[in-house]
Amino acid sequence: MKKLSARRRHPLAALVVLLLALACTGGLYAVFAPADKAQADETAQSLAIDEGKKLYAVGCASCHGTGGQGTTDGPSLVGVGAAAVDFQVGTGRMPAQQPGAQVPEKPVVYSQAEIDQLAAYIASLGAGPAIPSEEKYGPEGADIAKGGELFRNNCAQCHNFTGKGGALTHGKYAPSLEDVDPKHIYEAMLTGPQNMPSFPDSTMSEQNKKDIIAYLDAVNSDDTVEPGGLSLGGLGPVSEGLFAWVFGLGALIAVAVWVAARTAKAKKS
Asked: Global pTM?
């Protein structure tokens, strides 16, 4: 009876069955389970790059070259980063309408999804600044007073004191910063488009950029009250001084002429 019992059930049989069950479960999971998140993200990024390359070939390659190396009609895009693409295309400056001293802002040609695909392709050509997340340019934790100080020291020379914009040399200009998306302001500081110098994080911290954006939002808000009355376009002391010279001195000259005329009439009579 003992020999018959031993033949029917080996002591290791349960362990073997358990191992086989685990192997089958693992194999089935590997076949039917969803792809790993990192792998899925990599696949999505690869698809975005492919779609962006197609869009680039149609709308950008004629000026910037088939591989983004640049031509006589457009600069190289190797290493400019996704942030530069998101700014230039997201504000309608690119594709350029016509050559000139400066490419103006105009209605956007591409959807945001297409802009992201273009940005992914350009980013694949060389490392560069990435598109910033909302926490970098949002109002949370921003110091408006500090932003005003930073703006006056670094930006007002071109954009003037409240971001109204101003003329530069050779037909160029600093555009108005009113109603500009905070993300695009951050990207402009990060990448330095056209005539603007760039302010990477090594030169101006993320917090400082956030502070400047908060200041611009405050001074250009619809709720902002001009403490001095008429703002004269917010152009600063140059326009205000000119106003005083033209109208102030003009009024004084008119009064002087009137007094002289009255005096001359009085002497004649």
From this structure: 0.71
pLDDT (tens digit per residue) in 215-234:
999 988 766 555 555 555 55
Domain 132-224, what fold?
Cytochrome Bc1 Complex; Chain D, domain 2 (1.10.760)
CATH for 39-131, among 1.10.8.60, 1.10.468.10, 3.30.1330.90, 1.10.760.10? 1.10.760.10
- What secondary structure, in 3-state letters, does the chain show? CHHHHHHHCCCCHHHHHHHHHHHHHHHHHHHHCCCCHHHHHHHHHHHHHHHHHHHHHHHCHHHHCCCCCCECCECCCCCCHHHHHHHHHHCCCCCCCCCCCCCCCCCCCCCHHHHHHHHHHHHHHCCCCCCCCHHHHCCCCCCHHHHHHHHHHHCHHHHCCCCCCEECCCCCEECCCCCCCHHHHHHHHHHCCCCCCCCCCCCCCHHHHHHHHHHHHHHCCCCCCCCCCCCHHHCCHHHHHHHHHHHHHHHHHHHHHHHHHHHHHHHHC
